[in-house]
Amino acid sequence: xxxxxxxxxxxxxxxxxxxxxxxxxxxxxxxxxxxxxxxxxxxxxxxxxxxxxxxxxxxxxxxxxxxxxxxxxxxxxxxxxxxxxxxxxxxxxxxxxxxxxxxxxxxxxxxxxxxxxxxxxxxxxxxxxxxxxxxxxxxxxxxxxxxxxxxxxxxxxxxxxxxxxxxxxxxxxxxxxxxxxxxxxxxxxxxxxxxxxxxxxxxxxxxxxxxxxxxxxxxxxxxxxxxxxxxxxxxxxxxxxxxxxxxxxxxxxxxxxxxxxxxxxxxxxxxxxxxxxxxxxxxxxxxxxxxxxxxxxxxxx
Length: 301
Prior knowledge:
Strand order of the largest sheet: 3-2-1-4-5-7-6
Number of strands: 7
Radius of gyration: 20 Å
CATH class: Alpha Beta
CATH topology: Rossmann fold
Largest sheet: 7 strands, mixed
Number of helices: 11
Distance between the termini: 51 Å
Shape: globular
Helix content: 40-55%
Low-confidence stretches: 1-19
């Protein structure tokens, strides 16, 4: 009897250990190549370092996001930039779909694309955009992910792709928009250890970081002010990314202290934050730590 109880206890312990070490499967879904990079790149790099499977998905090819290029040539360029960024982040896959940039709509056809991609990845965590962003593609990408939540477990929806056995954890990636309500940083991840890798990943999106982005900002940060050399441009980008560290809201500071402890939180300079969507799995704090095993661990660069 004692041997039997010991065997059962050992099996339960081993089962718990295996579950704790389970490879997580994460898919981040943006409207354009580079959306996920700026909002999730550091955390994605941490997940990848820990052996978890991360995929970035862009719902459009990005074929309109430039002041002097466009169409298939730009779409192909941005697809290549995304692939290079994925390598620099260390993630498993970076896919861009062929929907046109600036024309993304929350249609049934695109919703089915999203459902299939989430199912094919067998996702534990799905990250999307909030639907109150400045860009209509971003808003519609957020709605598409919301509309895919729950449907990913319904067998009669997209029956050509097997449904997930359980609804994933759906999260919103960070943004600065205040209406109808501000972003809520339920989960805050310290990314100091991988900030340089995040910048390297952003640097791969040359058409956006050094051409289109500065052009849209007008005279203050015009294309003419961007250095020409690769090293100089990368340093310029690094300064821009790192200059934002001082803009941490009180809500983000509180969440950081919750997950890392008050003393550790004081040492953190760079973070990424996520809001738990009301769709999908609703985790408690212990489950959040299982989904984000890097929480509470301050890793040196």
